[in-house]
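Milestone M4 deliverable, item 7.
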Amino acid sequence: MGPGALRSAGLAQALRRLGHRVRDAGDLPVPIAEAVGGEDRHGLVFVEPITQVCADLASRLSALPEGEFALTMGGDHSLAMGSVAGSAQGTRQGLIWIDAHTDFNTPATSPSGNVHGMPVAHLIGLGDPGLAGIGAWRLNPEDVVMIGIRSVDRGEQQLVRQHGVTVYTMREVDQLGITRIVGAALERLGGLPRLHVSLDADAIDPALAPGVGTPVPGGLTYREAHLLMELLCDSGRVTSFDIVEVNPSLDLRNQTAQLMVGLAQSLLGQRIL
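Output delivered:
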């Protein structure tokens, strides 16, 4: 339902008003959860259909013409295994992960078995071989910067430290400010030919973005989120973008989708003057 909520909030129209040519490629076919089995390989929830959908997404994005900007809408954050791998188009790519969670679990560390808590670990090649092999591409851990983190499972903590992922928790956001964090992130990822931004709606404080499945208090404020997008836009380096975890069944009058549309506008050129 997430993509439908974003369309209803006027995402395509908002980007066209900024002067972009927008082509909506439609939705990937996704099985209805109640029509397929639950736990599967390694005890992971819905792993077979998730693997197939992400593989389809990676294939579609890798086939896009050079220079075409891909904006992927969701749905839960497991889709990043397809969107990040596919948008790289076989080259080295940096990832800015804006989220309340690191999503760095593996089947061995996950307390729930939910694949949406595992995409980054699988992108770097850990965990389930089927998920780690999506798109036949691997992400370098040193090419990942996470911003807005405030909820990390114990097993994830060890893995994130072990693999040297750069993480800015909400404590660092409070102490350093968004401007310094974005500057440091772009410097760390300097020289990479592609930069993918993956924005989880639960990175924003749930008072502003209630339509998410795993809300965590103390998230980014409205202005912090917009400034983050504006600074990334100013860099001129972002080549692809995810908006995920928008769940209209948990939202209030589609306000989370509307906020995400505004953030997409800031990333793609909206200016106050």
